[in-house]
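> @MW can you paste both from yesterday?
MW: sure, first one:
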Amino acid sequence: MDITDLKKGSIIQVNGTPHRVVKYDHSSPARGSAVVRTKLRDMRSGAMLDKTFRKGDKIESADIDPAEAQFLYADQEQAYFMRLDTYDQLGIAREVLGEQIGFLKEGMEIKVLLHQGKPLNVELPTKIELEVISADPGVKGNSATNVTKQCRVETGMEVSVPMFIESGDRIKVDTRSNEYVERV
């Protein structure tokens, strides 16, 4: 893999460990060769790493196998999933999942990313439907611009939504940015 093939979300191998590209900045100075500055997340531990690649550097892509799975439950340390093809139970540490844990609801089908047969992380759909459990009341007169308020959804996560959203509404949320998309 060449540095020009890198993009946000790519999974590469660094020192034998799979890393996901979180941030990517390509710069071509007036003199010299192109440089790509990346921020990488270790998919095993969740640790962040800043790494710079120069033109001509060879990057090894990680051998990742996605497996269809169903979210079962989460305890204080891990989230548990069941593979739909083998019915094996897989556990992934909460620290590794990060903010993604807030999108998981019981029975939800997702992809678990496996590296050498071990679960690393999950791949969520880009948009999911969630029910609003509680929403701050909207105050009249605050509608001159796009005013938002906080609400809590069924998974316990906080989402910023427009004033017209009430408790009991179903909304779509973008899992990449944690932003409200639409009312369902």
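MW: second:
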Amino acid sequence: MNECNWEVIDGFSSPYEYERFIIWIDGQVKNGTVVQVPVMESYAGSAFEEKWFKCLSSSDIWRLVAPQAPFLGYWGPI
């Protein structure tokens, strides 16, 4: 866990869980505790939607990879 209290998600259990996560991270961006930063190198490959987010209190950068069957998605540190 980091200063933003993020925990690794090694696969979303459902599309609904992923959508709830998107709403939550968007709220963190709107609150100003997190910023979205450019993806410098897509670790998931060009076939996957990937976004990076920076925790402003710790400067940690985490990546969000959208689920795409059979892959369940990912949220974790760079």
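> thanks! Residues 15-77 form one domain.
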